[in-house]
Amino acid sequence: MKKQAGFTLIELIMVIVILGVLSAFALPRFADFGGDARTASVNALAGALRSAANIAHAQQLANGSTANTAVTLEGTSIDMLNGYPSVTGIKVAAQVSSGTQTQFDDGEVDYVEAVSTTVSVTYSLRASCQVVYTAATTSASPVVAVTTSGC
């Protein structure tokens, strides 16, 4: 007489039930990484703005130029204000592409230049997911403020 090998129907059902319960708890934790990705993107933009401002400032100091004289970085002229990039200069220095809220094929969304004045510029992915660059004054360095509460 042959001995049968394999799983019974009850055992298979129990495995499926256990996997279902585990996935019900685990799936919501890993389902939405969009907010984390937007937060990381906004923080990366803030870092790019800070770095570009400091590199342009260092170039101006190395040139011995006055505080409002444009500097050239990699063949590109950067407008300066009080020793740091102006609002128009930081766009060029940090190479920020902005425009309409367009979703590309890979799911990425371009930054929207929400508010732009001669004093500050705001780049946002969502209403409360943004970076604000405020140009330097005669007594203070530029300020890069990040808001990630709505990412």
Task: Summarize the structure in words.
The protein starts with 8 loop residues before the first helix and ends with a strand. The strands form 3 sheets. A 4-stranded antiparallel sheet has the order 5-6-7-8, covered by helices on one side. Strands 1-2 form a two-stranded antiparallel sheet. Strands 3-4 form a two-stranded antiparallel ribbon. The chain has helices at residues 9-31, 34-63, 87-93, and strands spanning 71-73, 76-78, 80-81, 84-85, 112-116, 120-126, 129-134, 143-147. The protein is built from 3 helices and 8 strands; from the N terminus they run H-H-E-E-E-E-H-E-E-E-E. It is elongated, with a radius of gyration of 26 Å. A hairpin with a 2-residue loop joins strand 6 (120-126) and strand 7. Mean pLDDT is 84; it is low at 100-106.
Quick description:
The protein has 151 residues and is of the alpha+beta class. Helix content is 40%, strand content 22%.
Low-pLDDT runs of 5+ residues are 100-106
Assembly status = single chain
So what's the overall shape? elongated
Radius of gyration: 26 Å
Tell me the helix content: 25-40%
Strand order across the biggest sheet? 5-6-7-8
Helix/strand/pairing class, anyone?
Answer: alpha+beta
**What's the helix count?**
3
Mean pLDDT: 84
Q: Which strand-content bin applies to the residues? A: 15-25%
Query: What series of H and E elements makes up the topology?
Result: HHEEEEHEEEE
Q: For the report, how would you describe the main beta sheet? A: 4 strands, antiparallel
Distance between the termini: 66 Å
Count of extended strands: 8
Detail the topology: elements first, then pairings.
Elements: H1 9-31, H2 34-63, E1 71-73, E2 76-78, E3 80-81, E4 84-85, H3 87-93, E5 112-116, E6 120-126, E7 129-134, E8 143-147
Antiparallel strand pairs: 1-2, 3-4, 5-6, 6-7, 7-8
